[in-house]
Amino acid sequence: MLEVDQLTKSFGGFKAVQSCSLSVKEGTITGLVGPNGAGKTTLFNLIAGAFQPTSGSIHFMGKDVTSLSSDKLFHRGLVRTFQIPHEFHRLTVLENLMLVPENQLGENLLANWLRSGQVRAQEELTRQKAWETLEFLELTHVADERAGNLSGGQKKLLELGRTMMTDAKLVLLDEPAAGVNRTLLRKLEEKIQILNKERGYTFMLIEHDMEMIEKLCDPVICMAEGSVLIAGSFAQVRSDKRVLEAYLGEVVGDAA
Amino acid sequence: MEIPGILIYAMSMAIFMGIYAILALGLNIQWGFTGLFNAGIAGFFAVGAYTSALVTSALSANHLGGLDLPVPVGWAAAMLVAGLVAWPIGKICLRFRSDYLAIATIGVAEIIRLVIKSEGWLTGGARGVTKIPRPLASDNYALSELSYLALVVIVLFCIYLLVEKQLKAPWGRMMRGIRDNELAANAMGKNIERRRLEAFIFGAAIMGLGGAMLAHYYRSITPEAIDPMIATFLVWIMLILGGSGNNRGAILGVVVVWTIWSMSEFVTDQLPEEYAIKAKYMRVFIIGLMLQLVLRFRPEGILPEADQKSAQRRK
Questions:
Q1: Residue in A88, A92, A94 nearest the CB of B184
Q2: pTM for this structure?
Q3: How confident is the model over B160-169, as pLDDT tens digits?
Q4: Is residue B144 part of a domain?
Q5: Å from B136 to nearest chain A CA?
Q6: Does B243 fall in a domain?
Q7: Which residue in A73, A206, B19, B282 is a FRET match for A153, CA 20 to 30 A apart?
């Protein structure tokens, strides 16, 4: 479904992502792990069209999407969340969700006047879908709150909620668990699995919570210094000596 | 029957308020909803004023146009041409970040002013365009004022409804989203460049209409009227003070600022001549001071942006 080939991104002289190649198969929940600064988020930004790669290529659903912008990728079924929440801070929580669906008739200036009945009907459906999403995320009590006033954890949930408002094929989640409390976390894992099985979302997620990775992800890809170290099952990745080295430094490897 | 002078003065004040309210609503679309720092309101105002003037006035050797068309045609043309002028400007300038956009639009407005001033064959140069027809005018001065006031109020009301509907619609939600977080809006499939251009043109067209209405009220238009202080920064102060992102706030800001602005003229005119000239600058100072106070104590304006509550249909 997603093929990343020899992707490189340099910022000045620094190569954040270096000849990185990986693939995500349809229907999987692929985990992306690696120490801080391994280039995981940069890779996400490249895949999602927020950055343009220096070299290399990205194919999505069999088509070259290397230099497509974020909005075009969204329309092709690729949606992402942000590591640091990017909420629309002066919009209410409900509006944050209602903004997301594509092909909203009411986004056309003239349609608001010429086809206002249709616009209203579509709005009602969108509102309902947004409410259902809020109910699932247990955020209904803050529906009318400005998103900027939410706590860090709630904002992360809102980020996930936005992806649920789409008919995405591939969802990139950047640290969905960070700042979310334990009970909610279990529910989040459950929901990701449900979305994966029932709605056919393919997930690729960056996470530092290894419990979550172990529970959800197969395969797991480990990155270090801008490129892929190893891809395989969680057990394979965990027992790989290079992964340990990347996380803990080479000294530990020698001692073991 | 003699109409008291104070009433006539009040009417002319209300007409100015109505026209400024239209400008402020145009700016609200650009800044309040979309976050576009347009510091060149005067430019679009001028384009609208001159377009309508040239389209509706009688043939003259002093300037182009003189089509002698009905006033509503002139106003429609003003909106259209202001929108058309905004298109290439937006196409080029909207790529800049907000502060650079402000600089670019100031420059553009200044270019428009200089073109109008120096291209005499087109605009009549420094003499401007005169004998612009005033709709619903009669021999009775008070009646003329009153009917023009009614017309301004009607047009303002229509513009208010138009802008308010777009704000409440998914379009407005999307624009506010783009304003709040461009990166996220882009990731949610919104085409930032195109949408910003839409808002820029939409706002500019309304500013053009405001300019046209002022030209027909004055019955003439000269390059003097395109003063950035009066046509750009006063509108900005009105919007910020009233509450950007809130259409009623924008109108309220116009009423408050224009009242102070024109009342202060009364006061300064009472002073002896040598002070009166100096005191003129006090008026600008007072407006600036007010802006400072509002930004310090109530940065969202008198009527802040309202949240779009979902109360009507809760499951």
A1: A88
A2: 0.91
A3: 999 999 999 9
A4: yes
A5: 30
A6: no
A7: A73
